[in-house]
Amino acid sequence: MANVALLQGKKVLVTGAARGLGRDFAQAIAEAGAQVVMADILDDLVQKEAAELQQLGLKVDAVRIDLADAVSIQQAVEQAAESLGGIDGLVNCAALATNVGGKSLMDYDADLWDRVMNINVKGTWLVTKACVPYLKQADAGKVINVASDTALWGAPNLMAYVASKGALVAMTRSMARELGQFNICINTLSPGLTLVEATEYVPQERHDLYVNGRAIQRQQLPQDLNGTALYLLSDLSSFVTGQNIPVNGGFVFN
């Protein structure tokens, strides 16, 4: 269990929280003392996961969000802020990752490219934009944009996803320049290939490539990212902004 004092009193929205990394982030953040709203397009599942965490005595709630719909995003953020009594932390984890790989640049079609960019980049921007008024009120807001280390080494046959995650890194740096005046810190967390539902489609040879290429040669688990996420949401990182932090066991260095 995380240090229960680290995020005591914090109010955090986590997108993509029905499963995978987002689900694990939500639990770790709540265990560190924060109130958490879990947001996902999979409404039934995110409500179920929130109920399970509530049974553990954690302060969590859930809302539906669709990153492809600006109205849904605004409504979800407003609902989260009402439930939490404000927002001082945001984890943008929701993304389209499943079934976007295995295609060469010649095989990608424009519709899939647009869908990935619309959700992974535009959606993340819109969620952050909707949260900024609340983050300003907090006077010490924290944002984590979850990217991917694929943007650092250029994973092949995954072009739209890689491009979208590279865009998040660049967008985060621009946001940091604008939001710093409000004492809002925004950083990118870039995981390596992690064992979650969204990576089940990844061929075994890609998993082997990661394990063998890491300084720490093992599979990456969701909990390997929690410490960095908690740090970036806590007061310990109050002078850290605009950074991209890879957490991948040393597969690629920033």
TrEMBL record:
Keywords, ordered alphabetically: NAD, Oxidoreductase
Species: Acinetobacter venetianus (strain ATCC 31012 / DSM 23050 / BCRC 14357 / CCUG 45561 / CIP 110063 / KCTC 2702 / LMG 19082 / RAG-1)
Similarity section: Belongs to the short-chain dehydrogenases/reductases (SDR) family.
Gene3D superfamilies the UniProt entry points to: NAD(P)-binding Rossmann-like Domain
SUPFAM superfamilies per record: NAD(P)-binding Rossmann-fold domains
Ketoreductase domain location: 10-192
Oxidoreductase found in the keyword field: yes
Pfam families xrefs: adh_short_C2
Origin superkingdom: Bacteria
Protein name: Ketoreductase domain-containing protein
UniProt-recorded Gene Ontology molecular function terms: oxidoreductase activity
InterPro entries given in the database record: KR_dom, NAD(P)-bd_dom_sf, Sc_DH/Rdtase_CS, SDR_fam
Presence of keyword Isomerase: no
